[in-house]
Specification:
Helices cover 27% and strands 23% of the residues. The chain folds into four domains: 9-72, no CATH class; 79-207, no CATH class; 217-267, no CATH class; 279-497, Fumarylacetoacetase-like, C-terminal domain (Fumarylacetoacetate hydrolase, domain 2, Alpha-Beta Complex). Helix 1 (17-27) crosses helix 3, helix 2 crosses helix 3 and helix 6 packs across helix 7. By secondary structure, it is an alpha+beta fold. The protein is elongated, with a radius of gyration of 27 Å.
Length: 512
Amino acid sequence: MSNGPRIPKLEPAALGDEQRTLYDAIAGGRRAQGPQLFRLTDADGCLEGPFNAFLLQPRLGSALQALGAAVRYETALDDRCREIAILVVAARWRSGFERYAHEAAGLTGADLAAIRDGRHEMLSGREAVVARTAAALAARGDLDDTEYREAEDHLGPDGLFELLTLVGYYAALALQLRVFRVPAPRRPPPRLDTRPADGRLWAKVTFVERKRVAAMKLVTFDAGRVGRLEGEGEGAVVIELGCASAREYFERGGQAAETGERLPLRDVRLRAPIVPKKFFHTAGNFSDHHTELQAVDWSHPVHKGIVFFQNVDAIIGPDDAIVYPEGLTKELDYELELAIIIGKSGKFFGPDEAAGYIAGFTVFNDITARDIQRREMQSGVFSFSKSIDTFCPIGPWIVTRDEVPDAQALAMELRVNGQVRQSGNTAKMLIDIPHLVAHHSAQGYSAGDILTTGTISGVAAVQPNPFEFYLQPGDSIEAEIEGVGILRNHVVPWAAAHDTPPYSTDLYSSAS
């Protein structure tokens, strides 16, 4: 085994002071201490290694990414071996992992099948060793002595050095970014560690405790106070955060200290979790709903990805009343939708960057006056029919992105008086979430904006006799999305909310 690390070739002008410190720490470490063993100390304590820094401290992680772009490393593994190692990690957590394979690596369909099925002996000698070693690390976080010796004999110290780094990095990334379809193990993210005394590269991936500040349920309660929800059921408590609104929370990058006040959930009144600056609507984006709309006699087709804005003043929260405006409509309908919360400002970005703009999700029930909508559709647009006061229930909270392992595999169900009216899954979207978020970015995002994703099949308007399904005063609605929550609202007559006769206009009177 060589006594020192293979020093990266450096372009000094490309490195800032912080990056140079990181580079010096990496390049100056002893090879026997592992590929990333160095110590960085900040207010939160000591961080060991670039991949721990990436996971625990976004600021340091950004510096490491910039460092990686500024230095050129000599690699001991060829493109095929590197690709195999990455795909072995991906295959452990996600079906359909082949989409991550890069054609430039030259892997065939048979190679991918061997990786997917764990038949590593079907690969060539050196590549089979890479696959077996990566699979052992991904499954157990460790190598036994035989596995270690085989890997070092076939790959050499430099190749093993690189393989440990690859597997550790991508395993950590999988847990941190939740990029795999099957939920990751409920354990803290991994770090590579060292075995003291014997001097060999230590291949164990240990799981270390860390504070999870990113994953939470964010609530707005009482007179607009903001907090995070901790626990479930009768023991659930709301921990107040020191910010004026949920929108301000995202504008501040999620930096809000706890005030010290803890309140039982049962003792607070939840409100709409956020009032955004902009509320982007998407229509016709689920395959089943898109198909059933074709049977409706609209004057214009509802194409996938139609964009329009919602009236933010129509927003209501959990357990609030939807007021039936009898003077405007006789055809009040429901539409269950997943709503995306945008975490930061931005514009003109692509699908590969979209995840960085998604802060979380909430439930949205797109209440619609169908008779008004039909009249609007004669001009090829619709907005008024969905923007009447109280027609925009959202809630019950914002589930941050880390709480949702895969937003493209969530069951959805809407019930009226306990009867299932809509049932579907976010997997049926025609335009997936990254492309949808990127598409709307041309309009410019502000932190806290809401973007809806379209409704699933089963709305009242497409039923053989829709008047048997339209909402009526007295109805109770439960809009549920797996992993996000249940939004409950009820319908009341105009007189329950107003002391004036039902409002009507010459344009949209239900009597006309």
